[in-house]
Amino acid sequence: MELTATTNADWIGAPPPLFCGPKSKFDGLGYWNPLQFCKGGSAGTEGTEASCEGQPFYYEGQTAGVHIPVSEDSNYPNFYYENPRPGSDGSLQSPRSGNLPRTNVEGCCWWGRGVIQTTGRCNFGRLNKNIGAGAGSNALYPEINFCSNPQAICGGPSDLRWIAGIFFWVTEVEKYDGYKQWVDDFIDAGCTENPDLAECDTLFKYASGIVNRGKSFSNIARDISSLKYSQYSLFHRLPRPRRNRVS
Fold first, then answer.
1. For position 241, what pLDDT does the model report?
2. What does the pLDDT look like over 19-73, one tens digit per residue?
3. In terms of CB atoms within 10 Å, which end of the chain has fewer, N or C?
4. Cis peptide before 17, with omega less than 30 degrees from 0?
5. What is the largest distance, in Å, between two alpha-carbon atoms of the chain?
6. Torsion of CA 224, 222, 9, 151, to 10 degrees
7. Threshold 0.85, pTM exceeds
8. Cα separation of 162 and 164, whole Å?
9. According to the 3-state scheme, what is the secondary structure of the chain?
């Protein structure tokens, strides 16, 4: 299978759209350096005069960023992961000598797609078994095999990117022990009208844990505003703001 995502981030130096393909075609892949401007660009001009056209993995509008293959940096991946450098805050990750990043993208076609970013073979398989070709002729989308065509979530019927997210929500989030109580508390606190109240965060934090880690947790040390809007949109069918997402 060989696929290329339809979108990618648009910040200066952003990597190209995700892609997958056979090892015989894509091997020796290294890493993406977002700090290198292309010909004609510089930090002072923010890359507006640069052009990356002609370089590997070029995408329209690209002014910075370059792919560094293993052939140009023999330290990747072994040396870098076995000898990690401290982060900007001084923290140091544990060295890794095993389970290193792959240098090919064979079988990596099931990246996140749709409103809830359905990801991985297992989740696409469940989707296919319940609403796709694997569910038979009476399925919601009997003509779509999500296992062999995961890109259908982005390129298929326009409602599919939402349906895929709702399927995951119904089968993984709503069935979770305690979910009904969280929703009742959310409503009783008046959060359907004022979701930005501090006491309204609990539902979003718990649901985030289920979506991202398979279990609830009550303390997220990161900004959850975009997640809150996404979940609130599911409840109320609000239009989402236009954002660049990987599809």
1. 37
2. 999 999 999 999 999 988 887 655 555 545 667 888 899 998 888 999 999 999 9
3. N
4. no
5. 60
6. -60
7. no
8. 5
9. CCEECCCCCCCCCCCCCCEECCCCCCECCCEEEEEEECECCCCCCCCCCCECCCCCCCCCCCCEEEEECHHHCCCCCHHHHHCCCCCCCCCCCCCCCCCCCCCECCCCCCCCECCCCECHHHHHHHHHHHHCHHHCCCCCCCCCCCCCCCCHHHHCCCCHHHHHHHHHHHHHHCCCCCHHHHHHHHHHCCCCCCCCCHHHHHHHHHHHHHHHHCCCCCCCCCCCHHHHHHHHHHHHCCCCCCCCCCC
pLDDT at position 49: 64
Which is nearest to 238 in space by CA: 247, 228, 179? 228
Phi/psi of residue 161, nearest 5 degrees: -65, -25
Q: Are strands 64-68 and 31-37 parallel, antiparallel or unpaired?
A: antiparallel
Distance of CA 176 to the CA centre of its chain: 23
Distance CA 76, CA 200 (A): 45
Of 146, 140, 145, nearest to 118 (Cα)? Answer: 146
- What would you report as the CA-atom Rg of the chain, rounded to the nearest whole angstrom? 21
Structure tokens given for 26: 């894509």
Looking at residue 48, its pLDDT comes to 56
Q: What is the per-residue pLDDT across 174-187, written as a single tens digit (0 to 9) for each? A: 888 888 888 888 88
Give me the amino acid identity at 113. Answer: R
| Per-residue pLDDT at 97 exceeds 70 | yes
Give yes or no for a contact between 162 and 141, defined as CB atoms under 8 angstroms apart. no
Calculate the alpha carbon distances from 16 to 33, 53, 89, 167, 227 in Å: 11, 12, 28, 29, 24
Q: Give me the percent of the chain exceeding a pLDDT of 70.
A: 82
